[in-house]
Amino acid sequence: MAQATLEKRGFRNSPLETIVDRIWRFFCSVRAAVVEIAILAVLVLIGTLRGSSVPRWIADAIPATEGIVDRWYGWDVFHSMPFMLILAILTIAITVCTLNRAPGIWRTINEPTISTTRGFIRNADVSANATIAQPVESSLDAFTTSLKKKRYRVLSEEHGDAVHVYADKNRWAKLATFPFHLALILILIGGIVGARYGFKENEFIIPEGSVRDVGHGTGLSVKLDQFSDSWREDGTAASYRSDLVLYENGEEVKRDSITVNNPMSYGTTTFYQTSYGQAAQMRITDLDGNVLYEDATELGIYRSSTNPDAPAGIITLPQSNLRLNVIAPDEDRANAPMLDTLNLESGQMYVQIRGTGPDAGAEMQDAVLVQGVPQEINGIVVEFQRETRFTLLQVASNPGIPIFWAASFLLVGGLFATFYFPHRRIRAILDRSGEPGVTQIALAPLAKRDWSGQKDFRGVVEDLQRRLQTDFVVNERASTYLERPAKPASNSA
Amino acid sequence: MEGMVRLSFYLFAAASIAVAAAWVCYMVYAVGFIRLRRTALATSTGMTVTGSSTEHVPGPMSAARFGSLFGWFAAVFAGLSVLTRAIASHRGPYSNMYEFSLAFVFVLTLAYMLFERFYNVRQLGAIVMTIALGMCLYLWSLPPRMREVDALNPALQNRPLMTLHVSAAIVAYATFAVSFAAAILFLIQLRKNVSWLPSAEMLDDIGFRAVTIGFPMLALVLILGSIWAHQAWGAYWSWDPKETAALFTWLVYGVYLHTRSLRGWRGQRSAIILLIGFVAVGFTYYGNYFFGGMHAYGGVN
Amino acid sequence: MAESIDAHSGGHVAADNEHGDHSPPTRRKQALAGLGVAAGILILAWFVAGRAGLSDVGKGGINTSLLPKVGDEAPDFVAVSPMGDVVHLSDFKGQPVWLNFWGAWCPPCRAEMPDIQAAYEQLGPQGLTLLAISLGDKPSEAINFAELNGVTFDILLDPDRSLTSPTYPIYNFPTHIFIDENGIVQKIVLAEMSADQAIEAAQSILPEQTASTNTRQ
C-alpha cells in the first residue's frame, strides 16, 4: 500500500522519467502523507490558538516571547500561503494516491490471489489446522457453508493435491476510501467555488418600512415590514424575527418571516437573521417643501466622536452636498454626563450637518430635533418623525453549497463504511495427499497484528469445529510487538 | 417538569458515587497486582509471574469485579440522569457544560463497560474511571445555576440537529478516552512487559477499534456543525476556534490512522499520537474557556 | 438494573473460573448483592444530593415563575399618576385592562409608542383601559415623551421600579399583559408590537359584542 510499484519500462533511464517517477512516488508515500497531514494539523493548531488566550498566557509567562506572540496574533494562518500550499500538496497527494491504489484495491475485490503457501499459514499470528475424516470435496462444501453463513465470499482453486481457498467479507467497504478521499477534495473545491462565484454581505441592514437593494447583479431588493424580538419573562431572548418582502426587478416575488436558524432562500440567494438595532424615521425637505429624503436611518452603526455612548447614523444628501449625522440619546444615561453636554432626552435627536463635495468645510449648524417637529437648519427642513427598528441580515449566495453537501455525505458515509465494515480475509489449504477420504486443513487470517481480525477468525474456526465435528488445533504466535531481541524476558512465551 | 430536573440531579449524585466506587475498586485491582508482582519477583527466584499467577490471589480480581459492577451502575444512573433531564428539556444535552459533561460521563462509562465486556479485560478501568471521576468532580464544581434547565437562545434553537451534533461529539470524545487508556497501557506493556496487563496486540486493537468508532463520529460532528452554522449564519465554516480545534483533533487521529499502515510507526509511535490526540480532545472540550467565538455561549458561565 | 448485573456477572463466570475463583457465588446471591449495592448507592446519593441542595434544584431556568400566569387572577400593584395620585390596579376592576410596562430609556419601547397610541385610538372607544407604566424613568422625561407621541391613554410612574416589582418583576421591555374584566390574565406579550398586532392581542380581553364587530381574526 505504501509504495508505488511502477512498471519498469524500456525508457526508464530518461532523466525526466526518473524525476516524474520520484515525484509520483513522493505523493504516493504514506510516510509523506503522514508528514503532510501533521503539518496541516500544526498550522490548524497555530491558527486555533490565535483565536484563544493561550498565546497571551505564554507571553505573560515568558516575557521574551512577546514579539513572537504579537506576530502570532497578527498572522491569519487560514488565509496564508503556507496553508494554501499544504492544502494543494494534500490535494495532489490524495489524487495521486487514489490513482495509485485503485487498481490494487480493485484486484483485491474482484480478482484476489487465491493460491497461498504453507509458509504463509505457518507464519501467521494465528492459524488453525485439523484432520477431517471426509474427502476434500465435502470438507470444502462444509467449509464454504460455514463461511457463507458468516457473510464471507469463498473462492477456491485446485493446486495439485490441494485446494486453496480465499474467503473474505466486507470487500466492497474497501472502496469506501475513495468517496471519503474524494470528499476531502470536493470540500476544497466547494470552498473555492463559493469564494469565487458567490457573495456574502455580512451587514445587510434594513430599517422597518424601508427597501434595500441586494446588489451583486441579483436584481433583488428587500423590504422589512417588521422586526420583532420576543423574550422570556426572565429576560432571556426567545426569538428574533424579520418579516420580509422580496422584490425582483421591482416585482414582489416572495414574502416570508425569517428567524435565526430559519433563513429564507430565493434562487441561490439566502437571507439570514443576524442582529438588530434602533433606527430613526427622518423626513428632509427643501424650503419649498420638495422631499429630499424620507426613510429610516439606522443608528448604532456609527458612534459619535463626542459621545461614544450614543448610537449614531449618517444620512447623505448628494444633491445638496450635505451629510447629516444623527445622534440618539445615550443608551446608558448613568454613564454619559461627562461626554454628553446635550443631555438629550427620549424623543429627541441631535443632528450635525456637514458639507460634502464642494461645500466641504463650510460652517454649518447643529440642532436638537424634537420628535414630530420639523425644524429649518442650513436651508433644509429636517423632521425626526419617530423611532423604529432595523434588522441586520446576512445575505449570501454560495454556489459551492451543493458540492459541500455532496462531499459531506461522501465523507461521513465513506468513513463509516471503511471503519464499521472492516475487510476480513482468510486463506486455507485443504490437502488430500494423506490417507484417502481424509482432508488435512490448514487456515489462517490475513490479520497481522490485528486482534479483532484474529478474534473474528477464531469465531470462524469454532463454527467450523461444530459443523465438522472435528477438533482444530489453534496455533498462536507470541506477541510480535514484544519480540525484540534485546529485551530481558520476564514472560515465558 | 421541575420534578424531572430534580430527579436528574439526584441520579447524577448516584452516578458520581458509583463512579467513585468503581474508581476505588479498579485502583485496588491495579495497585494490588503491582504489589503482588513485586512480592512475587522478590520472593521467588525461579518463579515467573504469568497470567496464571492470579490463581493464588483472588483479592484484586474480586476488586475488579466490583469495579465492573459499580461501573455498570455508574453508566445506568448517569444514563437515567441524562434521560430525565432530556424529558424535562425536550432536547439533547447541549445548552451548557453541566448537561454536556453529564452526558459525557454516561457515554464514557457505557463505552468503557462495553469495551470491557467485548475484550474481557478490566485493566483499563483504572485509567478510564480516573477520567470519569475527574469529570464528576468538574461537574460538582460547576455553579449550581447550571443544574437548571434553561430555555434556548435563538441560535441554539435547532433541536434535532444540535442533539445529533452534540451526541456524536460525546461518543467521539468517549471512545477517544478509551483509546487513550489503551495507549497508555500499550506503552507500559511495550517497555515493561507486565504479565497482568492484556497483550500488546489487544491493547493496540482496543486503541484502534475505539478510534475507528470515534473518527467517523468526529467527522459527523464537524459536518453537522457546518450544517447548523450554515442554517444559522449562512456560512458553513467560519474558522471559529472551536471548529478548528475539532478539526485539529480530527487531523491528529487522521495521522494516527495513516501511521498504522507504516512500518516502524505502528506500535509505539501510533500510541504516542493517541496520547496527543486525547490532549487535543481535552483542549477542544474545554475550548470554551480559551476561545471567544460562536461556541462561547455553549455555557461556561 | 438487577438484570444488568446478572447478565454481566454471568458473562464473566468463565473468565473468573479461569482465574481460579474458589467458590463462585450463585446467580441469585449475585443478584441480591447487586440490588444491595444499588440500594446503597441510591441511599448514599440521597444524603449527598440533599446536602448539595437537592430541594432547590429544578426551580430555575424554564421553570422560573416571575409574572402571573395566563388564566390566573392578576395581582394588584400600586403606581403613581403624573398628578401624584396613588393608583391601584384594583381601581379598574370590571374593565378590560391592558398593562404596558415600558421605559423612555428603552429604544424598542420608544419605537413602539406611536403604534400603541394608534391601537388605543381604536380600542379605547370599545371600553378598553390602557395603563402604560413607565419603569425607571425620570417622571418628567416619561411624561414629555408621552406628550410628544400624542398619547391619550393613562401613563403611570414607578421611577425606581420598587412599586410594581413585588407582584410584577419585569425583565423585558416592553412587557404587555392583557387582563379581562374579571381580573383574569388572558395574554402576555414579551415583545414589541405593531398597531395591528396590539389590536389583535387586545381582542382576547374585549367583551364579546364589541369584539365581533371589530374582529380581525
Give the fraction of residues assigned to helices of chain B: over 70%
How many helices of chain B? The count is: 8
Per DSSP E runs of 2 or more residues, the count of β-strands of chain B stands at: 0
Query: Given the helix and strand composition of chain B, which structural class is it?
Result: mainly alpha
Shape of chain C: elongated
What is the string of SSEs of chain C from the N terminus onward? HHEEEHEHEEEHH
Let me know the average pLDDT of chain C: 82
Blueprint of the fold:
The complex is a heterotrimer of chains A (493), B (301) and C (217).
Chain A lengths: L14 H14 L1 H21 L3 H8 L4 H9 L6 H30 L7 H6 L2 E7 L3 H14 L3 E7 L2 E8 L7 H21 L1 E9 L3 E3 L6 E12 L5 E12 L2 E9 L4 E3 L2 E18 L4 E8 L3 E2 L7 E7 L4 E6 L20 E8 L10 E5 L4 E3 L2 E18 L3 H20 L3 E8 L7 E7 L5 H18 L4 E4 L17
Helix pairs in contact in A: 1-5, 2-5, 3-4, 5-8, 7-10, 8-9
Chain B lengths: L1 H42 L14 H32 L7 H23 L5 H17 L17 H34 L7 H34 L7 H19 L8 H18 L16
Chain C lengths: L1 H17 L8 H25 L26 E3 L5 E3 L8 E6 L4 H17 L5 E7 L3 H10 L5 E5 L16 E5 L5 E5 L5 H8 L5 H6 L4
Parallel strand pairs in C: 3-4, 4-5
Antiparallel strand pairs in C: 1-2, 3-6, 6-7
Search tags:
heterotrimer; B: mainly alpha; Four Helix Bundle (Hemerythrin (Met), subunit A); 2 domains; 8 helices; 73% helix; 0% strand; flat; C: 217 residues; alpha/beta; Glutaredoxin; 6 helices; 38% helix; elongated; disordered N terminus; disordered C terminus
How would you characterize the overall build of this protein?
- The complex is a heterotrimer of chains A (493), B (301) and C (217).
- Helix content of chain A is 33%, strand content 33%.
- Chain A has 493 residues and is α+β, with helices and mostly antiparallel strands.
- Among the domains of chain A are: 15-103; 112-170 and 422-476, Alpha-Beta Plaits, CATH 3.30.70; 282-333 and 341-388, no CATH class.
- In chain A, helix 1 packs across helix 5 (81-110), helix 2 runs antiparallel to helix 5 (81-110) and helix 3 packs antiparallel against helix 4.
- The model of chain A is unreliable at 1-6 and 484-493 (pLDDT under 50).
- Chain B has 301 residues and is an all-alpha fold.
- Chain C has 217 residues and is of the alpha/beta class.
- Chain C has two domains: 2-56; 65-213, 3-Layer(aba) Sandwich (Glutaredoxin), CATH 3.40.30.
- In chain C, 38% of the residues lie in helices and 16% in strands.
- Chain C is built from six helices and seven strands.
- In chain C, strand 1 (78-80) and strand 2 form a beta hairpin.
- In chain C, helix 1 (2-18) crosses helix 2 and helix 3 (107-123) packs across helix 5 (195-202).
- The longest helix of chain C has 25 residues, at 27-51.
- Residues 1-22 and 210-217 of chain C have low confidence and may be disordered.
- Chains A and B meet through helix 2, strand 7, strand 10, strand 18 and helix 9 of A and helix 6 and helix 7 of B.
